[in-house]
Amino acid sequence: MRAAHWPVQRHANAKLLVVDGSGRVTHRPARDLAWVLRSGDLVVANDAATLPASLAGVHASTGRAIEVRLAGRESLEAVADFAAIVFGEGDFRTPTEERPPPPALHAGDTLTLGPLAATITRVLGHPRFVRLHFEGSADAIREGLARHGRPIQYAHLAMPLALWASWTPIAAAPVAFEAPSASFVLGWQMLADIAARGIGFVTITHAAGISSTGDARLDALLPLDEAYRISPSAAAAIERARASGGRIIAVGTTVVRALEHAALHGSGRVSAGAGVATQRIGPDTRLRVVDVLLSGTHERGSSHYEMLRAFTRDATLERIAGELEMHDYRTHEFGDSVLLERAHESRPTADAEPSCDPARERSSAQRRLSPAGCRPDLPRLSAGPQTSGAGSSPGCVHASRCP
Q: What pLDDT shows up at residue 133?
């Protein structure tokens, strides 16, 4: 595959690789998506707009240049407190794995980020992974982010990324740290085609996280915990479609994570409310809700690729990889798309969020920075869906795995 170097959301020649439940592969233009789906299906997309989450600044005590990439927060409403990844000097033009480290970071350090001032409240088990508290009112913080921040981007893009270019056509609240880019394909004509064919469409809001840190130990933590909200109308539409035999089509891995987390903590049903998705989805996950995933192309070893393994067998994924290479598909957020139906054979019965087993965590590719796997040095985020406005308390990210 080749990288998509230009930020064009709906390229005229965009491709769609379609894989049905038997593993059969076909190639279509991306604009044909509605004609691949069935009447009675329900498409669920993420309507989060992208935050300008990359902040250039200075480490006050050393005067050294840094870049802060916001990476997590405890709810969609949180404004002042974030988890963040910190880089040394440089910008997106340098691949993340080649970026220099920041100066030594300590609790109490001040970071000057344009018009914003932030204090490191904790170092989260890795010298580049911190908790930040922004000074000032919520409005002042929002204004500072809007004026000074830029969307997070990577070296494969040939030009600086405008914020509007990272917003999907259905973007609403700016809560995502990176674009929920699977929704780039959803132009207005496609949405009209979907409706005309008797296919439902709803949105949820999920704070899509960062896709890479440039550090193997940090990348092993991805995806970080991600806040989401499911509206009453979306939850009702999902349950109606399931009851009538329609398939649930998730547009992007963030939608899979939110819906499966909600079902995991809702006795198999998707209920309305706010929550924080803490689970990893992989080959041992029993999917409860999502039948089909529309996503970009993903590299083997990434957390996104691991999620694909919950949908189909490794042999099918190998064949998909060969087809993507043979037919010159483009990768990364502005690349081509894959529509993957869950394999027809029965899936493993393991829960999507296993219990905290230190031995398993240490031997798994999903190992945590904490030897015990519970990550007690990170902030506690809610273990399951809440009613809107519910708060959370400090502690372990994987709340259901820790005492």
A: 98
